[in-house]
Amino acid sequence: MLNVPMHCIELILEQAGIIAITDKYARYTFVNKMWQHDTGISEKEALGKYAHEIIEGSRAIAAITSGKVLTADMFIKKKDGTSLPGVMTYYPIFNSNEVIGCFIYSSFESMEQAFAFSEKLESITAEYEFLKGEMRKRSGVKYSVDDIIGKSDAVKLLKEHIYQAGASNSTVLIEGETGTGKELVAHSIHACSLRNIFPFVKVNCSAIPASLMESEFFGYEEGTFTGAKKGGQKGKFEIAHLGSIFLDEINQMDMTMQPKLLRVLQEKEIERIGSSESIPIDTRVITASNTSLREMIRRNQFRSDLYYRLNIINIVIPPLRSRREDIPILVDNMIEKISNKVGREIDGISNKAIEYLKYRDWPGNIRELQNVIEKAMNVSRKSNLSLEDFKKFESYEAFTSGNRIANEEMSSSNENDSPLMLMNKKNNIEKSTILDVLEMCEYNKSKAAKKLGISRTLLYQKLRKYNIEIEEVM
C-alpha cells in the first residue's frame, strides 16, 4: 500500500473534477473548490449539511442505503436563488462490509458542461431510436414481443423463448395450432434480434404453386422462361439478405422443393434459375407449422434431414384453451383495437360474457376469439358487451361447429392412433358439446338435457365425469 501524503490526496481531489464526500448520514464532510464554485456555497457553509438540503434530487442517501453506485440528474440551489442543473455519480464508501459514507463525483469541469452533455446524449439517443424505428418499418417487421398479450405463465415462458431465439442466429421452428399467432412470434423474434433493421420477408408456402416455388425462393435470370421480367428477378432469400425469412406453413412445402431448401441451409448460397453462378446469402430462416412435422416424416411427407436443419430452436405456442386466464385481457385489447373499425366505442364487457368466453374451447384460438368479439361489437347496441350480444349471432349449429370439425377429424384419425387416443378425442368432443349447450341454455340443466336429447340424470353423470362445476347451472 502506498503511503501518499495527505496534501497530495487533497491536490488530487481539487483537480479531478467536481467532488464532495459525505458521512454515512449523507452529511457533507468534504467539498472541493470546483464544487464550491458551481454552487456558490463555501466549504464552511456546506460541511455538516445534508446533501439533499443543497442538491435537489441528491441520491447520496439512496447510494448509502443500497450500497450501489447511482447516477442522476439534479439541480443545485445557488446562493442567489437560481438552480443549476447537473449530472452526478454517487459511489458508496465501504469499510469492510459497512457503508460509511458517499463519494460524489462529476468528471465535467462544470455542472453546465455536464448538463449540456446529458442533453446532447439524450438528443442523440432519441434520434437513434427514431432512425432505428424507421429502419424497422422499412424492414417489414410489424410486431414485437410487446404485441403478445397475456400475463399467464404460458405467455411469460413464450416471451422468454422468443428473447432467447432473438439472441441467436440458428434456425427456428414455430409450432402451434391455427390462429395461435405463429406469424406474430416470427416477427417478434426478428424484432428483438440484431437483424431487426434488415429485411423481414414472409413467404406462405401453401400459397405458392409447386411449379413457381423455386423461382419465388431463389429468383431467375432474364429470358429463363416466357413472361420472365427484363433483367431477371431476385428471390425471397436474396431480398432477405442480412435479415430473416419466415417460411409459414412449411408443412405445405412440396417434396421436390425440400432438398433445394436443405442445400441453401447447408451451403449458405443460392442459384437463380437460369444461372450457374452461386450467390452467397446471410439470411436467418424461421419456419412455422400447424401440424406435426414428426408425424409427416413418419408418413414420408417431409424429409427428416430438412427437419433437423429447421428444428434447432423449437418454439411451441400454447393454444388459447390452455391459457384461459388471458382471455379477459385479450378481450379488452381487442375491443380497444376494433372500436375504430366498427365505428363506435365499446367501454367494456360484462362478467357473464367473459365467463361465457372463458368456457369455450376455441379451436380457432385467438383468431376465432377476435372474430367473435368483432361480431358482438357489430350487433351490440349498448356501451358494454353483454352475454346477449354474443347469442344474437350464435346458434346451436355455430356452438357445435368446432365439435363437428373435431368429430370429422376423429373419424379420419391416423390408423396408428391408439384406442386411448381415440377415446380421449371422443371425450373432448362430448365435453365441449355439453359446455356449449349449457351456455346456450343459460346453464339450465333441464333445458340442456332436452337439447342434448338425454335424460337429466345422464347429464348429471356426464357433468361429474368431466368435472364440470358451474354454480350458475340450475
Automatic annotation (TrEMBL):
One Gene Ontology biological process: regulation of DNA-templated transcription
Coiled coil: none
UniProt cross-references to PROSITE patterns, sorted A to Z: SIGMA54_INTERACT_1, SIGMA54_INTERACT_3, SIGMA54_INTERACT_4
GO molecular-function terms, A-Z: ATP binding; sequence-specific DNA binding
Keyword Transcription: yes
Ranges where the Sigma-54 factor interaction domain occurs: 148-378
Keyword terms: ATP-binding, Nucleotide-binding, Transcription, Transcription regulation
Keyword Nucleotide-binding: yes
Signal peptide: none
Name of the protein in its database record: Transcriptional regulator with PAS, ATPase and Fis domain
Organism: Sedimentibacter saalensis
